[in-house]
Amino acid sequence: MSKPEVEFQEGPAPTELVVKDLVVGTGTEAVPGGTVEVHYVGVEFDSGDEFDSSWNRGESIQFPLRGLIKGWQDGIPGMKVGGRRQLTIPPELAYGPAGGGHRLSGKTLVFIIDLIDAK
């Protein structure tokens, strides 16, 4: 797979996590609290500006789900290796309300995640 394009979403930002499978995988299923290896790209919902991408670094990243923002902890389990999923994550499930000290605090975020491995 190659780096995905994140399509701009019309209308107001959702107030709950929105999970959309773009490609359904057929491999091992990611489980809550498991470890995943992913490629991802993240953009701000309002502006469409990209703020992070493993593709730009040229390598995937592996980490335990419990160490991630709540939107990833809730949105990745059930995904299967080989799949590509879009998560639209409100601030409460990302970096908290505006003024929270993180540069993405108060922002709704959109990630497209490719699941490479799950343990």
Which helices and strands occur, and which strands form pairs?
Elements: E1 18-23, E2 35-44, E3 50-53, H1 54-57, E4 61-64, H2 70-75, E5 84-89, E6 109-118
Antiparallel strand pairs: 1-5, 2-3, 2-4, 2-6, 5-6
Structure in words:
- The protein is globular, with a radius of gyration of 13 Å.
- By secondary structure, the protein is mainly beta.
- 8% of the residues lie in helices and 34% in strands.
- Strand 2 (35-44) and strand 3 form a beta hairpin.
- The mean pLDDT is 96.
- Strands 1, 2, 3, 4, 5 and 6 form a six-stranded antiparallel sheet that branches.
- The chain has a single domain, classed as Chitinase A, domain 3, CATH 3.10.50.40.
- The protein has two helices and six strands; from the N terminus they run E-E-E-H-E-H-E-E.
- InterPro entries: PPIase_dom_sf (IPR046357), PPIase_FKBP_dom (IPR001179).
- Belongs to the FKBP-type PPIase family.
Tell me the total number of β-strands.
Answer: 6
The helicity comes to under 10%
Q: Given the C-alpha coordinates, what overall shape results? A: globular
What is the percentage of strand-forming residues? 25-35%
Domains, number: 1
Short précis:
This protein is mainly beta and 119 residues long. It has 2 helices and 6 strands; from the N terminus they run βββαβαββ.
Key structural traits:
119 residues, mainly beta, 2 helices, 34% strand, single chain, 6-stranded antiparallel sheet, Chitinase A, domain 3
